[in-house]
């Protein structure tokens, strides 16, 4: 499967990614249904870090469940092409129509904790998102739309403020890592 090869070939950026990659590979090798929410303990998700053309801003949503500004993304739900998932979620969650990958390669790997919560009136137990992240680009002049069942805000945030607007300490670290990686690339 293409996603397995992409994850196994991914070169970790730092210690967090090295450790998370090993655990994600363990899940791939030892658990069924990690592409679907049928695996209630841990499943694959795809996230998008969306930059404007000059890479000075990031398109973010105000996520209703996490009560925080966040990147876009969602569950694989059986889709093996995780870049397709990232692109689809970026469009659905922000209203943008044209978004393109800066690279089709995985840009970042994370294991993200999800606290127990209610979604559409049903309780979802605490679990892990095995997150594969892609770096995308969109035109900041495009009209943005809220997706009320998932977010209550969509806006371009200056790249240096991204970590500051997050209410999730573990995500601040991830956003800072991604921004450092973008800057290292030049």
UniProtKB/TrEMBL annotation:
<protein>
    <submittedName>
        <fullName>NUDIX hydrolase</fullName>
    </submittedName>
</protein>
<comment type="similarity">
    <text>Belongs to the Nudix hydrolase family.</text>
</comment>
<dbReference type="InterPro" id="IPR000086">
    <property type="entry name" value="NUDIX_hydrolase_dom"/>
</dbReference>
<dbReference type="Pfam" id="PF00293">
    <property type="entry name" value="NUDIX"/>
</dbReference>
<feature type="domain" description="Nudix hydrolase">
    <location>
        <begin position="41"/>
        <end position="180"/>
    </location>
</feature>
<dbReference type="GO" id="GO:0016787">
    <property type="term" value="F:hydrolase activity"/>
</dbReference>
<keyword id="KW-0378">Hydrolase</keyword>
<dbReference type="InterPro" id="IPR015797">
    <property type="entry name" value="NUDIX_hydrolase-like_dom_sf"/>
</dbReference>
């Amino acid at each position: 499967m293409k996603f397995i090869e992409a994850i196994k070939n991914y070169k970790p950026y730092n210690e967090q990614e090295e450790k998370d990659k090993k655990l994600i590979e363990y899940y791939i090798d030892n658990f069924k249904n990690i592409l679907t929410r049928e695996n209630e303990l841990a499943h694959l998700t795809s996230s998008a870090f969306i930059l404007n053309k000059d890479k000075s801003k990031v398109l973010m949503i105000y996520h209703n469940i996490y009560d925080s500004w966040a990147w876009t993304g969602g569950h694989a739900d059986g889709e093996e092409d995780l870049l397709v998932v990232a692109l689809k979620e970026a469009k659905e969650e922000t209203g943008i129509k044209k978004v393109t990958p800066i690279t089709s390669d995985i840009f970042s790997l994370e294991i993200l904790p999800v606290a127990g919560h209610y979604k559409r009136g049903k309780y979802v137990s605490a679990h892990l998102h095995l997150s594969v992240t892609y770096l995308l680009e969109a035109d900041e002049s495009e009209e943005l739309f809220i997706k009320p069942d998932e977010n209550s805000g969509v806006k371009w945030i200056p790249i240096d403020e991204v970590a500051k607007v997050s209410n999730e300490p573990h995500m601040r670290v991830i956003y800072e890592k991604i921004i450092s990686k973008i800057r290292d690339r030049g």
